[in-house]
Amino acid sequence: MPEWAQQIRKGNVRALARAASAVENRTPAADALLRKLFPHTGNALVIGITGPPGAGKSTLADGIIRLLRREEQRVGVIAVDPTSPYSGGAILGDRIRMQSHYADPGVFIRSMATRGHLGGLAPATTDMALLFDAAGMDAVIVETVGVGQDEVDIARLADVTAVVLVPGMGDDVQAIKAGIMEIAGVFLINKADQPGADRLEREIHAMLSLAHHDGPTPPVVRVVASEGGGIAEALHAIRSVAGDRGGHERSEHIWRRRLLEMYRERLLNRIPAAELDSAARAVALRRKDPYSIVDEWLRRI
Ligand SMILES: Nc1nc2c(ncn2[C@@H]2O[C@H](COP(=O)(O)OP(=O)(O)OP(=O)(O)O)[C@@H](O)[C@H]2O)c(=O)[nH]1
Ligand SMILES: [Mg+2]
Q1: How far apart are CA 300 and CA 135, in angstroms?
Q2: For site-directed labelling of 65, which of 114, 133, 267, 277 has its Cα 20 to 30 A away?
Q3: CATH 3.40.50.300 spans which residues of the chain?
Q4: Helix (H) and strand (E) counts for the chain?
């Protein structure tokens, strides 16, 4: 274990890949490893990129990686539950898009395709980001499709989250705004080469003026990710928002959530799936009441 941790900190890619698999599979070894590595975390800037399917999140991530590499930063990428086919630790579509980075030892790309963790996807993603952080990554980019609660939870855990929207979404802006308003540190209007960018920008500003949010108003930046346009401005906005928020208070706020999530996950993982199934059946058939079952579970720990 100490040797493994040391190899990861030295930037040994094989050791890191093995650890990433352990983290994704939630093995006991991953827990022990993360415990060892934790004191060496806290340096990476964790950037969330979220938005509807096909908004250009991966293209944008690709552009940001390129800029960070120019600064000789090491970058970890976590693609959460990608819609694209999944193969061998990389997503096919993303592999093509981020191809240039695959041969680059300064970039480590990993996808988290596993659904169905009882505790949710957020804790596993958090652990993966911590692992990358401990491995000396200067930045960790987490790409999620912004639709469900899992994605909102994950975005909350990032230091700053960029919400990617595209022109012509119409009512979608309304539909996604509830969860997204809370997590958005920066709004990026991608595909600004398409008609409707002006209108979308007006809608976002209108939305921001109505909504209550603490802290500074999120900047809105136009991007044409496929052409590399506006990426530098986007990264600048992300960094300045991260800088503004900074400090212990934000970190404490994040850890309050993380601790509860970890606790919840560990509790839930103590209930074998088969036992949950039979308990649900017993309650549905009114053979048992749910209160006694939950009490029994709590007593067991
Ligand atoms: N016109 C235009 N097309 C773009 C732009 N950015 C990305 N695209 C295209 O949009 C499509 C989707 O891009 P992705 O980067 O895969 O989008 P994504 O949000 O990662 O998609 P999912 O991960 O599947 O949700 C690709 O065909 C890109 O080439 C842009 O600025 N303008
Ligand atoms: Mg993508």
Answers
A1: 37
A2: 114
A3: 40-269
A4: 14, 9
Quote the strand ranges of 92-215, DSSP E: 107-112, 139-145, 160-165, 186-189
Per-residue pLDDT tens for 75-93?
999 988 655 443 333 444 4
Best CA proximity match to 188, nearest among 238, 154, 139, 245: 238
Query: 153, 120 in Cβ contact below 8 A?
Result: yes
Comparing C-alpha atoms, which of 123, 121, 127, 153 is closest to residue 140? 127
* Distance, CA of 177 to chain centre: 18
The structure tokens listed for 13 are: 């890619």
Q: Which of 60, 83, 226 to mutate to test the pocket of ligand 1 (most atoms within 8 A of CB)?
A: 226
At 298, which helix (H) or strand (E)?
helix 290-300
Cα(85) to centroid(ligand 1), Å: 16
Please report, rounded to a whole number, the percentage of residues in the chain having pLDDT higher than 90: 48
Q: Quick one: which atom of ligand 1 is closest to the CA of 145?
A: 25
> In which region does residue 170 sit, left (phi positive, over 0), alpha (psi from -120 to 50) or beta (all else)?
left
Please tell me the class of the 40-269 domain: alpha beta
DSSP string, 234-280: HHHHHHHHHHHH-HHHHHHHHHHHHHHHHHHHHHHTTS-HHHHHHHH
